[in-house]
Write a structure and sequence with these properties.
The protein has 309 residues and is α+β, with helices and mostly antiparallel strands. Helix content is 23%, strand content 25%. The chain has eight helices and ten strands. The strands form two sheets. Strands 1, 2, 4, 5, 6, 8, 9 and 10 form an eight-stranded antiparallel β-sheet that branches. A hairpin with a 7-residue loop joins strand 9 and strand 10. It is globular and about 60 Å long. It binds flavin mononucleotide (FMN). The site of flavin mononucleotide has 15 residues, from strand 2, strand 4 and helix 4. It comes from Penicillium decumbens. This is Pyridoxamine 5'-phosphate oxidase Alr4036 family FMN-binding domain-containing protein. GO terms for molecular function: FMN binding.
Length: 309
């Protein structure tokens, strides 16, 4: 499975993790999986829709989107599930708020990754204990996902259909072999879609996946980081957690907090079909579709079609 998902049995393991509230530590990169970007044959040039979506997001007061996955009912029938998530931009670029940047500077080797790579892949963060990651895992290889924005300031609806891959990070020393295999598959898949930025700088040897994920964790406020130490989402409130490290309302300043980081995931959406419905002019609404073509050329490329709305 390409998702870095925790095995059900490892919940017990989670309960046994001893939790130390020590001063923030600087961690070295633990699992640098080679990026192999130069050897990839699939990397598409910058997507034609990317800058349009980015400009619409810039105008929007909030970046929440609806995330749809597929679940299965007791009869084994596919059923849709949808929920709101906060879009965190295109992987791996993320502009941190000043406090998050300070935390990265103080706690991460070299102050984080050099700004070398960009992609057309959208991101959100989540808790591995939530349903959506189980649903993606149950969907098998190349798990399907659709993300949808209604960006009213641009009168634009965006639908991004693709595959989703979850990234974890430290404390990788605590991963099971299955989790480690899942993580490596996610990294290998996503690496094929990273491009060198034209104005990128820095030493590629200093770029690691752990640092990339830690940056997304740093982008959360201490109380939001603490939500990854809260009782299991979706469980009845009458069921109190046994692990004393688990509880509501905790503030996490350590970017490598082992309990929170065990649950924290960045979900990266590899887009395959993108659709824009532009309602700026209701008398002549516009609808565009971009499809990623994989077959007819050595490298991926986007095919653009204008549709009747
Ligand atoms: C404005 C808003 C933003 C949210 N952002 C996220 C998010 O970024 N990630 C996330 O996992 N859940 C987020 N949620 C909560 C989800 O909508 C959902 O309740 C939760 O993820 C559990 O869903 P699941 O059990 O289907 O996985 C957000 C909810 C709201 C209302």
């Amino acid at each position: 499975m390409p998702l870095a998902l925790v095995a059900k049995g490892s919940l017990n393991q989670l309960r046994t993790i001893s939790c130390k509230f020590t001063a923030p530590r600087i961690y070295p990169a633990i699992h640098p999986v080679p990026l192999s970007i130069s050897t990839t044959s699939r990397m598409a040039p910058r997507a034609p829709w990317r800058d349009i979506l980015a400009s619409h997001l810039e105008k929007a007061p909030a970046h929440d989107f609806s995330i749809a996955t597929v679940d299965y009912d007791a009869q084994g029938r596919a059923v849709p599930r949808v929920r709101t998530c906060g879009c965190r931009g295109f992987f791996p670029e993320l502009e941190l708020h000043p406090k998050g940047q300070q935390d990265i500077d103080e706690q991460v080797e070299d102050g984080g990754n050099p700004p070398l790579y960009e992609s057309d892949m959208l991101t959100f963060t989540t808790d591995i204990r939530m349903e959506k990651l189980w649903q993606l895992k149950k969907s098998g290889f190349d798990p399907p996902i659709e993300a949808m924005f209604w960006l009213k300031d641009s009168m634009a609806q965006w639908r991004v259909k693709g595959r989703a891959y979850a990234l974890g990070g430290p404390p990788s020393a605590l991963w099971s072999p299955q989790e480690e295999a899942d993580e490596e598959l996610s990294r290998r898949e996503l690496a094929q879609n990273l491009r060198r930025k034209t104005n990128g700088s820095g030493d590629p040897a200093k770029w690691t996946w752990d640092k990339a994920v830690t940056k997304y964790f740093a982008n959360h406020s201490p109380i939001m980081r603490g939500s990854f130490r809260s009782p299991r989402p979706g469980q009845p409130r009458s069921e109190a957690p046994e692990n004393p490290a688990i509880g509501m309302g905790q503030k996490v300043t350590d970017l490598h907090d082992p309990v929170a980081r065990k649950n924290f995931r960045v979900v990266v959406i590899e887009p395959e079909e993108v659709e824009l419905l532009d309602l700026t002019n209701l008398e002549d609404a516009k609808r565009w579709k971009w499809t990623l073509a994989r077959e007819d050329r050595p490298e991926n490329h986007w095919v653009q079609t204008e549709l009747w709305p």
